Amino acid sequence: MNTSQAPNAVVQTPGFAHYSVAWSPFHNHRLAVASAANFGLVGNGRLHTVSLVPGPRGTHGMKVDKFFETQDALYDVAWSETHENQLVGSSGDGSIKMWDVTLHDLPIRSWREHTREVFSVDWSNIRKDAFLSSSWDGSVKLWTPDRPRSVTTLQAHLTCVYQALFSPHHSDILATCSTDGTIKIFDLRNPAYASGPSSNTFTNPVSAAVLTIPASVTELLSLDWNKYRPFLIASAGVDRLIKSWDCRMVANAPPSGEAIGGLCECQVPGHEYAIRKVQWSPHRADVLATASYDMTCRIWTMNPQPGGAHLLNIHDPHTEFVAGCGWSLFEEGLIASCGWDGRLCTEDDPEDILSSSLQTLYDFTPITHSTPGSIFTYIIKPTLLPNPNSAKVIELETPDPQPSKWDLHASSIWVAAIYLADHVEDLELHRYQDREIVRVLELGAGAGLPSILIASAYRNARVTISDYPDEQLIQTLSGNISRNGVSGIARAAPYDWGTDISTLVGVYGNQDTPENDVLFDVVIAADTLWNPALHQQFIQSLVMSLKRSPDSRVYLVAGLHTGRYTIQAFLRSIEIDGCGLAVESLLERQVTAAQTSRSWDVARAENEDEQERRRWVVWIVLKWREHNLT
Q: Per-residue confidence at 354, pLDDT binned at 50, 70, 90?
């Protein structure tokens, strides 16, 4: 366990106690803080927007960009998921306000339906156009920015609702926690919500939860959905305990009325005083952070090694109650905390907090490496070097795409790409050594590690390195090709899966070249199966680009963070859609152990934990069925 007393960056807002901090989902350097004068008991509030700035020796600094005054305390803040400069705040006067940080002074919208303090707001990362509010009046309201009134009102509890959160896995599921000690889960599709043709949920609010979890005998102050396990919720409150709940376990489900249930998977004594905030890490399935009235922010694992401790780190820079904490969405291990001392602090040493604690203490294999815009260095194995004077390393700039393209997940070097590079000999490119040219294509290349390695090691290779047609992404790929001296062998190509492949093959042929000769002998892809909605387009691209030859192969590597059921859905699509491709080889291969492999088994999804998933990748080899070669 580590204790950190000196934060990497601090910003002070004199006269205003902080209640909540939120990282922007668009910019990795931008935060917002909700605050109140006189500790929120009386007086006005303030919304601060803050930026991380470069500090000495590679550290972070912080500066306040601007602030917006309110007539009452601000208790929570949430960034819009559709507009990078907009955010909403919840106020002690029962109102909700929206600001645009490019404008000054006044909010651009305001709503007031709650009859008491609004204590939380949460913007859906799935619905994008909807956000929630919860209040001391016991209600939860669903809003969209373009409507003057709430869309739905839930009479969630009879007493104060401290927090209401959308599920990060389903757009219609939300959870609440209250002074009554319960967690309630609501499904907005539930037919129990129908109130008749002449009524609506504003005048007749719904109150039927699909599940009620009696989580504590005291007040529950905070909860959070796990980002990797759809049915897991963490809770914390006045009893000072951190609990994780499996919401699939229902103990009592009467024909009419609310189901009661929830299985407490883990209970950890958390702090010396009440826990004000709990939040799961967006990068680790078992790690969470808590903020407490004992003036500390702490990092925990809910799945320690046998005999190991739950507590990983104590972040201890505050001199008053710590009311809020939040993980950066982009930089693993970077966390911010805020408190009644008016200090916003960040701790940005993931090596201390997470890498050493998670990987060293209990062997968590990282699934991503590098950060957006940074340089990643890969050491080439000596056996691959074409001559002793060749470069011994590959240097890659990690792509840093625009916020609108972050859903491509191209801003990291993924473990599957590194594994593919480490095992490039298994592509059996030596089979083509008698050919003047072997054509290789990488789809969804990101930084292009495996294909640039192939271009460096196999001089008869002609490599096309492709990714989504985003100008910044393709420019980074082209720069990586030049940086590593393979411009005559490799080229970057913009390509959207399922579309015409002329951008991939046009450079190789002319009108007299047989069509099959400009296609590719080998197609590779690493971590490209994570989105089932794109499986058909991806398969179409494989079919269109792979040369119809008995020697042609497709090599796919997928980390198990993709999800076993998602990988199985892809394999099923290959079998049933008549594309002409067949699975030649299908193995699970251990990332950290040479030559350790086992057969593929989707049923392992039911029993393996996060630690075990990270140890394996799936190695898939496809070839043409014999009757599809002509």
A: very low
Residues 6+ apart with CB under 8 A from 626: none
Q: How far apart are CA 303 and CA 286, in angstroms?
A: 6
User: Which letter does DSSP use for residue 362 in this model?
Assistant: H
Q: Coil, strand or helix: which one is 599? A: strand
pLDDT at 495: 95
DSSP state of 29: T
Give, in order, the Cα–Cα distances in Å from 81 to each of 86, 165, 173, 392.
Answer: 9, 14, 17, 43
Tokens of 388: 């002793």
Q: Smallest Cα–Cα separation from 298: which of 320, 331, 269, 267?
A: 269
In this predicted structure, the answer to whether residue 198 has a pLDDT above a threshold of 50 is no
Q: Please tell me the predicted confidence (pLDDT) of residue 55.
A: 64
What is the widest separation between alpha-carbon atoms in the chain? 82
User: Contact at 8 Å (CB) between 523 and 483?
Assistant: no
Distance CA 452, CA 397 (A): 12
Whether 352 and 25 have beta carbons less than 8 Å apart is answered as: no
The contacts of residue 226 (CB under 8 Å, 6+ apart) are: 232, 233, 234, 244, 280, 285
pLDDT tens, position by position, 429-473: 888 878 889 999 999 999 999 999 999 988 889 999 999 998 889
**H or E element at residue 573:** helix 564-576
Quick one: pLDDT band at residue 360, thresholds 50, 70, 90?
A: very low
Residue 192 has pLDDT above 60, yes or no: no
d(CA 450, CA 523): 11
- How large is the average pLDDT for residues 5-27? 87
Tell me the one-letter amino acid at 122: D
Instruction: For 172-240, list the strands marked E by DSSP.
Output: 173-178, 182-187, 211-214, 220-225, 232-237
Q: Are 85 and 72 in contact (CB under 8 A)?
A: no
More confident call, 52 vs 207: 52
CA pair distance 257, 208, nearest whole angstrom: 7
